Amino acid sequence: MKVNIKQIVGSGYEKFWEAKCRYKIVKGGRASKKSKTVALWFIYHIMKNYYLHGVKPCLLVIRKYLNGHRTSTRAELQWAINRLNASHLWHIPKSELSITFIPSGSTILFRGCDDPDSLTSISVPIGNLCYCWFEELFEINDKKTFEKIDLSIRGQLPYPLFYSVVGTLNPWNDLTWIKKEFFDKKDSDIFTDTTTYHCNEFLDMNYLTLLEKMKLNDPYRYKVQGLGQWGNSDGLIYLSYVENPEKNHAELQKNEHLMIITCGIDYGSGSKESKFGKTTICAVGITDNFEKVYCLDESYFDGHFLPERIVKWAVEFLVKIKEKYKVDIYLNCEWASSSAINNALKLAILENDIDGIHVQDAYKDTILNRIDLCQFLLAEKRLLFTENVPEIKKAFLTALWDTEKQKIKKVPIRRDDGTSNICALDTVEYALTRYTNYLMVNSKITQ
Questions:
Q1: What is the pLDDT of residue 340?
Q2: What is the pTM of this model?
Q3: CA distance readout (Å), 418 to 7, 51, 130, 366, 390
Q4: Which CATH architecture has domain 239-441?
């Protein structure tokens, strides 16, 4: 099988493609084709090394959460296989998170950091586990987790194999351990690169136009999302959370009792093109005496602003949460220009005779008061996030003050331009604001 790999990969990644050091870490903006290039590199080298040298390299793919692989890394690797016209040589089972190169038996394994037991002993039945890909490396908040996996990739390798641990990430802010560990070091065993959409000659003009508009209208956002430069931690709202998010990651314990589940819903912009304009709902559990707050689950309505479909989607989410936790649920709805949908939700609950689910307008409070409450709970380590809310956690990590508008209006203003998922933040705030006094009065710092 002959392929023109340069034509398939395109330009901008020549140094990455040829680098043979152990660590290759690539940060980049949107549409910089970093994930697709990495997927092509692994698939190409698994096949090339077998056909030219008879060796059988295997790949371990890591994400923060296991369930994120199916629509991201697994899909990217399958795309790479098809791009190389090699689909007939690979076995990709629908029900399993694994991929096998049929001629050699080399396997691609997928793991999540949310399952520590799966990371303790990683081995392959055939060949050598010498490749590792950390997709969305920024989500790996703990350097020790990275080191634990890195140390499991070891042993003698046959010629010409070498160890290659690749990390790809969007550089949301400069406090991450990744910057200090890789980008601020000079080490012959580390290759780093920053890529942009300028590397991607496959982009269409519509997308290029969107990025150029971002460059003119929002230079800060363009710097991070367009040029792949580090986000500025100076503007972070939830700095205490960003510095150590793992302290606020926890699962509801068996001996803990949920006193109430309060949900928030934000109807977004209704725009099909808006990534962060989707209608969003979250479920938040509050334990006895308002001691702890758990962000339990989240869901996003992917589509146009269609009231009937939104109501159906929201009711299904609420029923799922009610059946799982067996606790009364209170849905706090965004009030801005949405009374018709709020009334439709109330009617749907009534008509379907669903007990224990109550729909109400969210308590009206200022954004700054809502932010203060979340900052307070995070500081006391009482606002906790389960593995089921990855987008909410990312929203808290990337929430920024709008420093330019603050200079003009002389008051703190939250940046609302797509830099972070404001809809996700709003849902948590809507869920909690009604209980502000109880949460503040019953302050109890947990260890």
A1: 83
A2: 0.68
A3: 34, 46, 38, 20, 17
A4: 2-Layer Sandwich (3.30)
